[in-house]
Write a structure and sequence with these properties.
Length: about 350
């Protein structure tokens, strides 16, 4: 089975619930880059990547240059990924290069599943039947009372934990908001996300002020390329650290793990370059005894997590799942869990009319 043609489309999709707010972002749209790969057997595989509203055209340009190198190649996800990465990596080993490659890699794995007549999770090797979820909100712009209601709703829906944003100009306001949540939900597991917004000193202060809250993890307290800072912070504080949504390569994750700088690995399927590198990152994390809790794209992550021995959970982003963004047909969770669809390939049914209506 060989690649016959690749059709790309870039769409800018409005958020389901208006604007997302955290320490460093104000996001109103998500860009989705989709790739439909047709083979000489007539099978079509679909892949995608995403941005937080900026950079999609750069990814398109990268793939336009890559596509002649893929024409006529055998559908072999691992070999194609590594050949493609070597071809474009002089533009950066991770970031826009890996974001672009994700769309092709996911399509390749979709094709393998369709050719074999197996769900993606079974192609990869199923070890779990479903994955537990946590509720996640991009909610720094909401009042404390609104965030309390949000977290109570996730608890009622069966999610095993909740994550909220921190990073108010006054640290004591963060403490007050989190204390209200903790009082409202008791010992229900609670994570917080700082979105790389603190300096080292500010992060150290925040960790100490949050100690009484029994947090499950603090996410991205520092800029994502500051491995040493995260290692020093983890050594001086007692709250676990989660990170990875803005880490792009296996070597970068390995550096975090080798320096004992991360407790929960949150590799994003799109940002690391797709399924092929994500599996390598998960295996590396497993060798260090660290669980996988990927960022975003929960509908596809369900397949990967159910094929990962060290899987922990998926992130159910309120108003930000692919289903809620109308990019794919709904795949609702059941009692706080999500199971991969039992159809050949990844089973994501894209809403092409909607994507075309928002195409750039």
């Amino acid at each position: 089975m060989r690649i016959d043609s690749i059709d790309l489309m870039l769409s800018k999709v409005p958020l389901a619930k208006g604007e997302w707010g955290d320490q460093i972002h104000r996001v109103t749209d998500i860009e989705f880059l989709t790739a439909r790969v047709t083979t000489d057997t007539g099978l079509v595989g679909t892949g995608f990547s995403h941005t937080s509203g900026v950079g999609g055209r750069t990814m398109m340009a990268m793939l336009d240059e890559l596509m002649p190198e893929l024409d006529g190649r055998e559908v072999n996800p691992r070999k194609l990924w590594h050949d493609s990465w070597r071809y474009i990596r002089d533009n950066g080993p991770g970031g826009v290069t890996t974001l672009a490659l994700a769309a092709i890699d996911i399509a390749m794995w979709d094709l393998v599943g369709k050719e074999r007549g197996q769900a993606l999770v079974d192609v990869l090797g199923r070890v779990h039947d479903r994955v537990k979820l946590y509720g996640s909100g991009i909610n720094l712009n909401l009042s404390a009372e609104e965030v309390v209601d949000q977290v109570q709703g996730w608890k009622a829906d069966g999610y095993f934990a909740a994550k909220v944003k921190v990073g108010k100009p006054d640290l004591e306001e963060d403490v007050e908001r989190l204390t209200k949540i903790r009082e409202a939900v008791g010992m229900f597991p609670l994570m917080v996300d700082a979105n790389q917004g603190w300096t080292y000193g500010a992060a150290l202060q925040a960790f100490k002020r949050f100690e009484h809250l029994n947090l499950y993890w603090i996410e991205e307290p520092l800029p994502s390329d500051d491995v040493l800072g995260h290692a020093q912070l983890r050594a001086r504080t007692g709250i676990p650290i989660g990170l990875g949504e803005n880490v792009y390569t296996l070597n970068q994750f390995n550096n975090y793990l080798a320096m004992d700088a991360v407790d929960f690995v949150q590799a994003d399927l799109g940002r690391v370059g797709g399924i092929t590198p994500w599996l390598d990152i998960a295996a590396t994390a497993r060798s260090f005894g660290r669980p996988m809790a990927p960022h975003f794209v929960v509908e596809l992550s369900a397949h990967i997590l159910c094929a990962t021995p060290n899987a922990l959970c998926g992130e159910m982003t309120d108003g930000g799942t692919m289903s809620e963004l109308k990019v794919i047909e709904p795949q609702p969770p059941v009692d706080g869990y999500l199971a991969p669809r039992n159809v050949p390939g990844h089973g994501l049914e894209f809403n092409w009319d909607y994507l075309k209506a928002h195409a750039l």
